[in-house]
Amino acid sequence: MSVSKWVVDATHSSVDFTIRHMMIAKVKGTFHNFSAEIEANPEDLTSASIAFTVELSSIDTRNADRDNHLRTGDFFNTEEHPNLTFKATKIVRTGDGEYDVTGDLSLHGVTRPETFEVTYEGSGKDPWGNEKAGFSAKGAIKRSEYGLTYNAALETGGVLIGDEVKISIELEAGKQA
């Protein structure tokens, strides 16, 4: 395959996260609105151009009160910082269809380098003849490194909200004509 532009198929893609709650459980959530600018040969991402944007107000943890709190100044402050962005700066092949994708992640007014493990899941034509490619990505960030420090101490020790946020992305993209 040659280098081409790819458009995210949001109906067949997801951006999910997991974070510890009360030191004993995990809360999962998703972001419904996101986009990407991808120029790549899916079979060799080493020279790809990848930029990803997540609309933070589209957060969904299956609890409206919690979601509304996450949009406030205690957390994302979506009025001042509406998006999380990621721009790849270095892509290294680590195995067959596997890559470490490092880039600048911007969240809450802070930009830091982060690395995600990305797997090329394959490609093919859909029933209408459109070329599609699939990718999975996983990684973790520390929310405190982005100024997201809201928390509460627990009587039993520890804190209400974990610092590490695990991120999982499933992406299906269509080759732009």
From TrEMBL:
SUPFAM superfamilies, per database record: YceI-like (SSF101874)
Residue span, Lipid/polyisoprenoid-binding YceI-like domain: 5-174
Family: Belongs to the UPF0312 family.
Protein name: Polyisoprenoid-binding protein YceI
Organism (species): Paenibacillus taihuensis
